[in-house]
Inverse folding.
């Protein structure tokens, strides 16, 4: 169960785009996601997006589009770790996104807030 009631807020970006987010700042309709939303959300999380951040964000969105479900954190760690392994991926994940996969990656990638989650 979510800790904050489902209170929706509209966020208007400098680009003129308007997004509906829940009480934790997660996009309510992932289909409306744009890179501008990602940059805005990342800035609010204190993250300056690098090419490596974008690789993971785009991978998460592609996986969700291909499989109809968000990839679990352990798959993100495997993606990041590549030949170096899952532990290297875990270390990089928390270097890129210090507050973790659910709190930052899924939010910046424009996914809905998960109701329950395994951090892998």
């Amino acid at each position: 169960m979510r800790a904050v009631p489902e209170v929706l807020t509209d966020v208007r970006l400098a680009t003129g785009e308007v997004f509906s987010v829940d009480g934790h700042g997660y996009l309510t309709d992932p289909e409306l996601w744009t890179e501008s939303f990602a940059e805005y959300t990342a800035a609010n999380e204190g993250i300056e997006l690098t090419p490596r951040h974008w690789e993971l964000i785009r991978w998460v969105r592609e996986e969700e589009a291909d499989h109809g479900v968000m990839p679990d954190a352990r798959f993100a760690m495997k993606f990041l770790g590549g030949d170096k392994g899952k532990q290297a991926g875990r270390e990089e994940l928390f270097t890129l996104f210090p507050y973790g996969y659910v709190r930052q990656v899924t939010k910046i990638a424009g996914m809905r807030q998960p109701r329950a989650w395994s951090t892998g």
User: Anything to note?
Assistant: Residues 31 and 39 are 16 Å apart (CA to CA). Helices lie at 35-44, 51-67, 73-81, 86-96, 101-108. The first helix runs from residue 35 to 44.
